[in-house]
Amino acid sequence: MFLLKYSNHFKKDLKLYKYNRAVLIELEKVLDILVKGNKLPPKNINHRLAGEFKDCFECHLKPDILLIYKIEKSVITILLLRIGSHSELF
């Protein structure tokens, strides 16, 4: 079982979605799966990133709402880096 850590960017991004119930519900589902160490379903389009976010993963919460995170296996932690649309994040 993994622990969750939140970057300052993630906390700031999340405030933009505090009234978007659909995104928050999907985020909760995805985090529950990740914390247990399970694979996300294909609908979340989970994949590894390159460039600035090398060693990180991206999954879709909604068609244009993404979650960027990093798995730190050595400390059994998932670091949540960003949440937002493609245009906001890239």
Automatic annotation (TrEMBL):
InterPro entries in alphabetical order: RelE/ParE_toxin, RelE/ParE_toxin_dom_sf, Toxin_YafQ-like
PANTHER family referenced in this protein's UniProt entry, alphabetically: MRNA INTERFERASE TOXIN YAFQ
Keywords, alphabetical: Toxin-antitoxin system
NCBIfam families, per the entry: RelE_StbE
Annotated catalytic residues: 86 (proton donor)
Single GO molecular function: RNA endonuclease activity
Biological-process GO terms, alphabetical: mRNA catabolic process; translational termination
Superkingdom of origin organism: Bacteria
Signal peptide: none
Name the record gives this protein: Addiction module toxin RelE
